[in-house]
Amino acid sequence: MRRLNPSLVAGGVIVGVIALMALLSFVWTPYDATLVNPSGRLAMPSWEHWFGTDKFGRDVFSQIMVGSRTTLFVGVVAVGVAAVIGVPLGVLAAMTPRWPSELIMRTNDLMLAFPALLLAIMFGAVFGASTLTAMVAIGIASVPSFARVIRSGALQVMRTEYVLAARAAGRKPFPIAARHVLPNVTSLITVQASVSFAIAVLAEAALSFLGYGTPPPTPSWGRMLQESQEFLFSAPRLAVFPGIAIAVAVLGFNLLGDGLRDRFDPKLEDRR
Amino acid sequence: MLVFGFMAVLPGDPARVALGVNASDEAVAELRRQFGLDRPLPTQYVDWLGGLLRGDLGTSYVSKAAIGPQVFDRLQVTLLLVVAGMLIALVLAVPAGTVMAARHRRLSGVALSALSQVGVAVPAFLAGILLIMVFAVKLGWLPANGWTPPAVDPVQFLRQLVLPALSLGLVQGAVLTRYVRSAVLDVLREDYLRTARAKGLRPFPALWRHGLRNAAVPVVTVLGLQLATLLIGAVVVERVFVIPGLGSLLLDGVSQRDLILVQDVVMVLVVAVLLVNFLVDLLYVALDPRLRTGSR
């Protein structure tokens, strides 16, 4: 039996717990995460409020639970956008003749020089701060890395004998891509999705922190962190809980990505 | 073109924003004419690009001040922060990554590896907030925010630089550590290092004399990519520590809808990223003579 991969297990457990918390928040949270309670503001952690309350008297634990929904939602859509555009682009670059392929990849390289956060800030300025804007911007910024990784995998598949045989048998490029190339780069897509998810979580948190992400009153870990800044001297715990949530989520997706990579390419395992 | 295109579709009239909602249509039209906003977009683009190439970044729609000197002043602040952050990252990553590789099967190596994995997961702005909580709020050793130019008060400058530089450097150091570990592990498996050990050299001297230059090649590539990340990370860290750098200028420009200012700052940041990548390519060739012949 194959040995359990510690990164995969740890990452899977963390991501699983966050996903469960997000799902649970649809049916149950200790309090309404957006309920303002002026008489109970800045309460210390207690049995009533496990993580205390914020400046508006809102329950911090409930906000963290609902915030996990925002985080996962942004990640899923951003990675979806990146995969839907990046995967076909990578396969196309691997299957087309030299100059169109070069054109795609050089344009891709140019986009790589465009940092995700910068693109997202510009999107925020153009279309206004919203979760949708953040998701799409982060997704578009992740397209180049998807395209690059998938192209390298697809190039390897294109050199295999079964693809050469399919080409010799007169199969058209599209059926070759659908039947031979895509199924063989699925592992790469999975690994890249996990890595991009971690980047999306970080970018969403940074954007919300700057005020260009999820607008109030929808709870978001990044904005909770930003709102905690004015209470660093009087209630520093307000920064600790969303901070830990962000770091644990990113850690989970990073570990999952590492674990998946090791599983699909065991030769790499010893190098991590 | 990408930067200009995004800014061109920005909703709202920059002239109207600059003059306020109560401004008359005539005044808005006059300002649009003054800034050349009434001309076709291709003409505006060519003018803007020509100005950039001549070093003329134009005039702010809001403050009416020349943008070039502002960007230059702010860029110096950001570069100081980024360089300090990168130095901290290097000082942390090279020894830690080497130890992690040399002892990758021992407890100390595994513990350091786990620690670096946690470090990678912490965003720089979160590290900044945590550092403020410990060193400014709890211990009161360092100021929580602010910026003093080094020429005005060097001591205060250093005191104010420590926490923001640490927040950038610690996180990037954690990322870099993993690459150093991977590169050193690769080198440790090479035949020339085995030969050096067989000659009687102890592990660390052998690695120092024969391995580090080879391990430096992939690390330099990552270093370049990280410099770009640091430059963008500084945008958020400047907000945490209220530092008047390029990031603050960009965010001010976005909130005031100062279109030309945003365009210029984004352009400067993207050019800086491209420039760093180009310099890394040059350094890559300098470090690895095999690349000069074009053979692999």
Summarize the structure.
Chain A is about 70% helix and about 0% strand. Chain A has about 270 residues and is an all-alpha fold. Chain B folds into two domains: about 1-55, no CATH class; about 65-290, MetI-like fold (Orthogonal Bundle), CATH 1.10.3720.
Describe the structure in your own words.
The complex is a heterodimer of chains A (272) and B (296). Chain A is mainly alpha-helical and 272 residues long. Chain A has one domain: Orthogonal Bundle (MetI-like fold), CATH 1.10.3720. In chain A, helix 3 packs antiparallel against helix 5. Chain A is elongated and about 75 Å long. By secondary structure, chain B is an all-alpha fold. Chain B folds into two domains: 52 residues, no CATH class; 225 residues, Orthogonal Bundle (MetI-like fold), CATH 1.10.3720. Chain B contains twelve helices and no strands. Chain B is elongated. Chain A: Its main location: membrane. Chain A: Pfam families: BPD_transp_1. Chain A: Belongs to the binding-protein-dependent transport system permease family. Chain A: One of its GO terms (cellular component) is plasma membrane. Chain A: It is a multi-pass membrane protein.
Brief descriptors of the model:
heterodimer; A: 272 residues; mainly alpha; MetI-like fold; B: 296 residues; 2 domains; 0% strand; elongated
Number of domains of chain A: 1
The name of the CATH superfamily of the largest domain in chain B reads: MetI-like
SS elements, strand count of chain A? 0
- Major sheet description of chain A: none
What is the CATH homology-level superfamily of chain A? MetI-like
CATH architecture of chain A: Orthogonal Bundle
The CATH class of the largest domain in chain B, by name, is: Mainly Alpha
Low-confidence stretches of chain A at least 5 residues in length (pLDDT < 50)?
A: none
Task: Indicate the topology.
The complex is a heterodimer of chains A (272) and B (296).
Chain A (H helix, E strand, L loop, with lengths): L5 H22 L32 H36 L2 H15 L3 H12 L3 H28 L2 H8 L4 H12 L1 H25 L10 H8 L8 H28 L8
Chain B lengths: L1 H7 L5 H6 L5 H10 L6 H14 L12 H36 L4 H15 L2 H15 L15 H35 L2 H8 L4 H38 L5 H10 L3 H29 L9
Helix pairs in contact in B: 1-12, 5-6, 5-8, 5-10, 6-8, 7-8, 7-10, 8-10, 9-10, 10-11, 10-12, 11-12
Subcellular location (chain A): Cell membrane
Pfam families (chain A): BPD_transp_1
InterPro entries (chain A): BP-dependent_transpt_permease (IPR050366), MetI-like (IPR000515), MetI-like_sf (IPR035906)
